[in-house]
Design a protein that fits this description.
The protein has 330 residues and is an alpha+beta fold. The chain folds into two domains: 3-214, Endonuclease III, domain 1 (Orthogonal Bundle); 225-329, Nucleoside Triphosphate Pyrophosphohydrolase, CATH 3.90.79. It has helices spanning 3-14, 26-36, 41-54, 58-63, 66-73, 80-96, 104-108, 115-125, 135-144, 154-167, 173-186, 205-209, 306-309, 316-329; strands at residues 225-233, 239-243, 259-260, 269-277, 281-289, 301-305. A hairpin with a 3-residue loop joins strand 4 and strand 5 (281-289). Helix 2 (26-36) crosses helix 3 (41-54). The termini are far apart. It binds a DNA duplex (11 and 11 nucleotides) through residues 32-44, 75-81, 84, 111-117, 120, 132, 134-137, 152-154, 178, 181-182, 184-185, 190-192, 221-222, 249-251, 276-281, 315-317. This is Adenine DNA glycosylase. It is an enzyme of class 3 (hydrolase). GO terms for molecular function: 4 iron, 4 sulfur cluster binding; 8-oxo-7,8-dihydroguanine DNA N-glycosylase activity; adenine/guanine mispair binding; metal ion binding; oxidized purine DNA binding; purine-specific mismatch base pair DNA N-glycosylase activity.
Length: 330
DNA sequence: TACACGTGGAT
DNA sequence: TATCCAAGTGT
């Protein structure tokens, strides 16, 4: 049997029943693809369901204020995805009467839609013969063929794209695309692969050679920079001091606790130490309690009532600190 | 090309 | 605890 038939047959029998696979609505598929980027399916599911209730159509998303959109994304990470999805919705309303175009080039020109997502939407929503090369596909294909190319290079992506394009000839593009990704997610996993259950095991070179662990080939990423910070909690009459005046460009549009690289702390009460790991940097935070009279207000700083706290977009690192502080001291 | 960009789960 | 990483995109 050909790979495309093994794969689509396996997919039809064994795929997970995921809520975003049900409607077939191109917008729903778009949202799910953006949310799934670099994110576990289990993690994004709750966000997805809430999102589709809050913004059931492209028009609804396009007309929502960005502050609300970011609040909906709070905790999911990579917040540029939410901004671009919002911009993208506005573009689709403006240029395409609110309908996603069934055209690779035009999809690719929508903010937040890159090569992978364009291929995913085209093949899954519009049944086009369009490869969607993601991390799963790179892993599956590189093992299948013992591909020694570094999967972080564009050249490799192009090579895999062309291979997949050939492989998916005369198949159902939607089941093929999702099948390849589902295989990577459930069977051909980075660790603890389940080759005995794989529909492609008879054709897989890595399986035959017992060299699954060596693929895919990718170069090591550099270690995140570590930063020591002094973070302060300043309560005042049932309020807490928050600010918007950061300079690091991280999580733009979200509020934080005031934070310093240097601050005299001898008159402050030390509350806790916290470590927060980002993909590219690490915050080591010493959290102190300060009295409102000890702190000079700067532009962009404001006291926020505890009731308002839940409705604001706050960076996750500090949301956790605030929650812990409230549980322990309030 | 290399790097910035978040978070939480698995091992 | 340390490490890796999970359906990438923009610059």
């Amino acid at each position: 049997m050909e790979i495309k038939d093994e794969l689509t047959g396996w997919y039809r029998q064994y795929h997970r029943k995921l809520i975003f696979r049900e409607s077939g609505d191109p917008y729903a598929i778009w949202v799910s693809e953006i949310m799934a980027q670099q994110t576990r399916i289990d993690t994004m599911l709750a966000y997805y369901e809430r999102w589709m209730k809050d913004y059931p159509t492209i028009e609804a998303l396009a007309s929502a204020p960005i502050e609300k959109v970011l609040k909906s994304w709070e905790g999911l990470g990579y917040y540029n995805r939410a901004r671009k999805l919002h911009e993208g919705a506005q573009m689709v309303v403006r240029d395409y009467q609110g309908q996603l175009p069934a055209n690779l080039e035009q999809l690719r020109a929508i903010p937040g839609i890159g090569n992978y997502t364009a291929g995913a939407i085209a093949s899954i929503a519009f049944k086009m013969r369009a490869p969607a090369v993601d991390g799963n596909v790179l892993r599956v294909i590189s093992r299948l063929l013992l591909m020694a190319d570094d999967i972080s290079s564009q050249k490799t992506h192009k090579k895999v794209y062309d291979l997949v394009y050939d492989l998916m000839a005369d198949s159902d593009p939607s089941d093929f695309t999702q099948g390849l990704m589902e295989l990577g997610a459930l069977i051909c996993t980075p660790l603890a692969w389940k080759c005995e259950q794989c529909p492609l095991k008879a054709k897989c070179q890595a399986y035959a050679a017992g060299r699954q662990a060596e693929f895919p080939v990718k170069k090591a990423k550099k270690a995140p920079a570590e930063v020591d910070l002094i973070t302060i909690i300043v309560p005042k009459e049932n309020q807490l001091l928050l600010c918007r005046d950061w300079q690091d460009g991280l999580m733009e549009g979200f509020m934080r606790l005031p934070q310093f690289t240097e601050l005299k702390t001898e008159h402050l009460k030390h509350l806790m130490k916290k470590k927060h790991v980002f993909s590219h940097r690490i915050w080591h935070m010493d959290v102190y309690l300060a009295d409102a009279s000890q702190i000079e207000l700067k532009p962009g700083w404001e006291y926020v009532s505890l009731e308002q706290l839940d409705n604001l977009s706050i960076v996750t690192a500090h949301r956790k600190i605030i929650d812990q502080y409230r549980r322990k001291y309030l």
